[in-house]
């Protein structure tokens, strides 16, 4: 039985005041009895404060990105060691905004994925197709190539999958991110199942265990149907994670 994970990606939103209000709002409604894991990924600058505030609660905190480098003269970058040092436990890698706006290749994303694991962080590998790619029928070709980059980083696919199984996959169709257009539960389930089948060709056991989140305009109004799908193990939520009540409503739906 896979555990559900509800993750909020705050992207480049907020101020110290709004972040504190958001964390307090989430914490005050987080019930220790919930079965699902709950994660928030604030901007780097608010990580320390968020982690301090989350201490003693069920709320996990992660980064939105990390450097593939160990340390050194890399202005503006943040290392895996630094995230771990603060107490972050997760990190997003390969979010579509990083891929499309900041030119992160699948190879670079794989380097970041491996660095995150090396530093004891749980990487959330984001994959997904653009509208054009969906319309020309290459959704799975794109998603598989993004996954393959991580698998191929390691010695062989079996070892690659072992490492993929230590992280989380987030399927985020680019056309559904921040657009208000959500993939239908059937569309999302189809890709989630295809990802799991693809991984099962290498190792059924790991494929059965890996958490696959859905991301793209998920909100409390559509979360129930999406989360009811057999291969959808949670959500990576952008806009709807910026309001404590809305985010908590999704967490409650997830259990
Ligand atoms: O990381 C989160 C995703 O990009 C989804 O964002 P969204 O919920 O605002 O569409």
From TrEMBL:
<dbReference type="InterPro" id="IPR022896">
    <property type="entry name" value="TrioseP_Isoase_bac/euk"/>
</dbReference>
<comment type="similarity">
    <text>Belongs to the triosephosphate isomerase family.</text>
</comment>
<keyword id="KW-0312">Gluconeogenesis</keyword>
<dbReference type="InterPro" id="IPR000652">
    <property type="entry name" value="Triosephosphate_isomerase"/>
</dbReference>
<feature type="binding site">
    <location>
        <position position="178"/>
    </location>
    <ligand>
        <name>substrate</name>
    </ligand>
</feature>
<feature type="binding site">
    <location>
        <begin position="9"/>
        <end position="11"/>
    </location>
    <ligand>
        <name>substrate</name>
    </ligand>
</feature>
<comment type="pathway">
    <text>Carbohydrate biosynthesis; gluconeogenesis.</text>
</comment>
<keyword id="KW-0324">Glycolysis</keyword>
<feature type="active site" description="Electrophile">
    <location>
        <position position="95"/>
    </location>
</feature>
<feature type="binding site">
    <location>
        <position position="217"/>
    </location>
    <ligand>
        <name>substrate</name>
    </ligand>
</feature>
<comment type="function">
    <text>Involved in the gluconeogenesis. Catalyzes stereospecifically the conversion of dihydroxyacetone phosphate (DHAP) to D-glyceraldehyde-3-phosphate (G3P).</text>
</comment>
<feature type="active site" description="Proton acceptor">
    <location>
        <position position="172"/>
    </location>
</feature>
<comment type="subunit">
    <text>Homodimer.</text>
</comment>
<dbReference type="InterPro" id="IPR035990">
    <property type="entry name" value="TIM_sf"/>
</dbReference>
<dbReference type="Pfam" id="PF00121">
    <property type="entry name" value="TIM"/>
</dbReference>
<feature type="binding site">
    <location>
        <begin position="238"/>
        <end position="239"/>
    </location>
    <ligand>
        <name>substrate</name>
    </ligand>
</feature>
<dbReference type="InterPro" id="IPR013785">
    <property type="entry name" value="Aldolase_TIM"/>
</dbReference>
<dbReference type="GO" id="GO:0016853">
    <property type="term" value="F:isomerase activity"/>
</dbReference>
<dbReference type="InterPro" id="IPR020861">
    <property type="entry name" value="Triosephosphate_isomerase_AS"/>
</dbReference>
<keyword id="KW-0963">Cytoplasm</keyword>
<comment type="pathway">
    <text>Carbohydrate metabolism; erythritol degradation.</text>
</comment>
<keyword id="KW-0413">Isomerase</keyword>
<protein>
    <recommendedName>
        <fullName>Triosephosphate isomerase</fullName>
        <ecNumber>5.3.1.1</ecNumber>
    </recommendedName>
</protein>
């Amino acid at each position: 039985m896979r555990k559900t994970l509800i993750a909020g990606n705050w992207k480049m939103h907020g101020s110290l005041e709004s972040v504190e209000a958001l964390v307090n709002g989430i914490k005050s409604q987080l019930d220790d009895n919930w079965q699902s894991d709950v994660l928030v990924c604030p901007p780097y600058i608010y990580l320390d404060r968020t982690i301090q505030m989350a201490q003693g609660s069920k709320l996990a905190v992660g980064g939105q990105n990390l450097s593939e480098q160990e340390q050194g003269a890399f202005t503006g970058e943040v290392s895996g060691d630094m995230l771990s040092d603060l107490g972050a436990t997760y990190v997003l890698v390969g979010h579509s905004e990083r891929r499309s706006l900041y030119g992160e290749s699948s190879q670079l994303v794989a380097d970041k994925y491996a660095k995150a694991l090396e530093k004891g962080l749980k990487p959330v590998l984001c994959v997904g197709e653009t509208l054009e790619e969906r319309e020309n029928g290459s959704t799975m070709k794109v998603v598989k190539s993004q996954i393959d980059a991580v698998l191929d980083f390691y010695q062989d696919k079996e070892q690659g999958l072992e490492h993929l199984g230590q992280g989380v996959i987030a399927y985020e169709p680019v056309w559904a991110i921040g657009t208000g257009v959500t993939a239908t539960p059937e569309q999302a389930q189809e890709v989630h199942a295809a990802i799991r089948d693809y991984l099962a060709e290498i190792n059924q056991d790991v494929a059965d265990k890996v958490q696959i989140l859905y991301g793209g305009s998920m909100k409390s109004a559509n979360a129930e149907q999406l989360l009811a799908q057999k291969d959808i193990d949670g959500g990576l939520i952008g806009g709807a994670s910026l309001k404590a009540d809305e985010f908590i409503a999704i967490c409650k739906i997830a259990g």
